[in-house]
Amino acid sequence: MKIEQIYTGCLAEAAYYIESNGEAAIIDPLREVDAYLNKATRNNATIKYIFETHFHADFVSGHIDLARKSGAKIVYGPTADTSFESVVAADGEVFKIGDITLTVLHTPGHTPESTSYLLKDASGKPYCVFTGDTLFIGDVGRPDLAQQGELTMEDMAATLYDSLHHKILNLPDEVLIYPAHGAGSACGKHMSKETFDTLGHQKEVNYALKASTKDQFVKEVTEGILPPPQYFAKNAALNRLGYENVDKVYEKGLNPLDPEAFELLANRTDALLLDTRDPEVFGQAFIPSAVNIGLNGQFAPWVGSLITDLEQPLLLIVEPGKEQEALTRLSRVGYDNTIGYLEGGMDAWIAAGKDVESIESISAEAFVNLNDAGEAVNILDVRKPGEFEGGYLENAALLPLDYINDWTPEIRPTEKYYIHCAGGYRSMIAASILKARGIDQVVNVAGGYAAIKLQKAEL
User: Is the N or C terminus of the chain more exposed, i.e. has fewer CB atoms within 10 Å?
Assistant: First the structure.
């Protein structure tokens, strides 16, 4: 028996490769599926099943392409309804992979079709359970994503409580918990950096599992949930209804354009210019109207949160050699309409004598001196509310980056704004978006609040 957790940090997502006696199964695969196919080929195994724990909201699953390329059957839990061929399993149904079995445990609450899969080894002993977004390490799935009819978030949380207590918490304490996400995912509030644990330990440390009553569980799980990113519902629909073949996405997007062709296409279309370079490098010189979301951070979730139209045509500016990585990470959240990239990157653009813009950055030391001098300055803190509560500048306005499309109209185009986040990644995203929208006087505070706090401590 072989179980491999394949963890993707930028999405905080875990897929699983399971193999026994020449047969394999994949749980919650990512959009790019060649890694699973190659792994099975190297091991002389046949992928028999693709198990989906639910209609994922925060990424586009690779189930359809993987089924097409491998011949494996796609399996969902009870109540799932798909527009493609799939097996909608019954609660308690058993699937055999070589010498082991996976038993379907219908665990609604995060979503109605949410399902966990209990793996039993060749001797029939429970070994681990793949819990999807039902049970995380340190948390449980948010119950507000799939409210139906008159069902409220509280109703779904109560259903989640029943699922946990009737299907998972009665398993042996030594059973391993393998969730679909870890820290950084928006699918929970208090997820641990650990990506697996024993059930017994989770009973001791997971706040939600320690709730003494259903009412307490509902209260604690629903408290403080921020609205989900706008792309969640769209990704869930793609996973249920189907999507474009990822190979065609690459074929369309890997279209090299010299500076003249890039500029012409930008002028002739409504394409968004997406610059994926490091924020500090971007700020020094970029194509007018380009928006910066760096590949070195949580690129795909931020694209999904900030670009509201999945069909938005995209033209990419990337570090040479990073074109396919950018396309892959865009496709993971359903952004399939990249129509080309700037061949040679910004060096080629500058060499061609094309126009560039820049965004001023100020050091934490210079910013603190300016702020402490009592000069009236506009400070935008684009962190999340929880971060803000942990420490903030008294004269800063909390305007989380997640909601920039809502608060941009509040910004006065004639005034100057100093923008900071925790470390500088998000503040440059915000500055670039505001600049593209005609707010010219934006200044990025290098190093963010961490650098500001350190500088103040040294004074």
Answer: C
Q: What is the pLDDT of residue 66?
A: 98
* Cβ-proximal residues to 170 (8 Å cutoff; 6+ apart), any chain: none
CATH code that applies to domain 245-351: 3.40.250.10
What is the DSSP annotation of 231-263?
Answer: HHHHHHHHHHH----HHHHHHHH--EE-HHHHH
CA–CA distances in Å: residue 10 to residues 27, 289, 294, 300, 320: 18, 26, 11, 7, 20
Query: Average model confidence (pLDDT) for the chain?
Result: 95
The separation between the first and the last C-alpha atoms of the chain, rounded to the nearest angstrom, is 59
Q: Does domain 360-458 have CATH number 3.40.250.10?
A: yes
> To which residue do tokens 């999507």 refer?
243
Give pLDDT tens digits for 136-178. 999 999 999 875 567 899 999 999 999 999 999 999 999 999 9
Q: Compute the CA torsion angle 231, 385, 138, 147 (nearest 10 deg).
A: -40
Q: Which of 3.40.47.10, 3.40.50.2300, 3.60.15.10, 1.10.3720.10 would CATH assign to domain 2-233?
A: 3.60.15.10
* pTM of the shown model: 0.93
Bridge-based pairing state of the strands 417-420 and 378-381: parallel
